Amino acid sequence: MRHKHSKDQVNENFHSQAELAFSTSLNTFKKQAAALVVEGSGWGEHVSAHEKDLAFQLRALINNAREKELDKLQSLTLQQAKDRIEQIVNAPIYELNPGFWEEIKTPYMTELKDLASSCDQILKQGFQCNEPEVNQFMQSLEATLHQFTVEYVRRLFRDINTNLLRKFSKGFKKDNDGKTRDWRAIEEAKIREIWSACRNDMLNVIKEFKYIKMSRTALTEALEESRKPIT
After folding, report:
1. Is 88 contained in some domain?
2. Model-level pTM greater than 0.85?
3. How many domains does the chain have?
């Protein structure tokens, strides 16, 4: 969550620092007001009213700053997660190995688990968020991440013919050891068998394109998993 520039940093100790600033400001006001109040002048009531007004304004400022910090936390978390999701998704869809969805899902869920655990800790400790606030933050983040992931996968699928052609060509032209086949030494029936096997591999991969197998509640699932005690 930490970056070089202050505008790209989230104050992970917001609550404690805000409460310190609040109490310091009120105490300073009380001390200065006490030095000015003359006993029996009636100014004490005015000072008390001003103190309440100051406390109200300070709380409003803190709440406003808190909302901005939470928005910043979500924005930076999204950007960080999007970069990682692109890295996780790219290679499996490029290689198109059998079960490529599992190649995506495992590191994807690991990334979301780390992300959820980090956000959960910052929200609860740094901002003293209650459970409804944490859930609202996570659900908003989850919806945006799922939409981004689905749209990114769809963009990659637009070039899927290129990937399929490359994979077919590699499987057809090279043997299991990665060596180029010597077609002159291979009988025609065997060549047809190799071609058929490569074609069937492609058909099995194509079946995987029917659905984008990414859970809509992946972040919520990851959060629940991160909260489980280590046994």
Report:
1. yes
2. no
3. 1
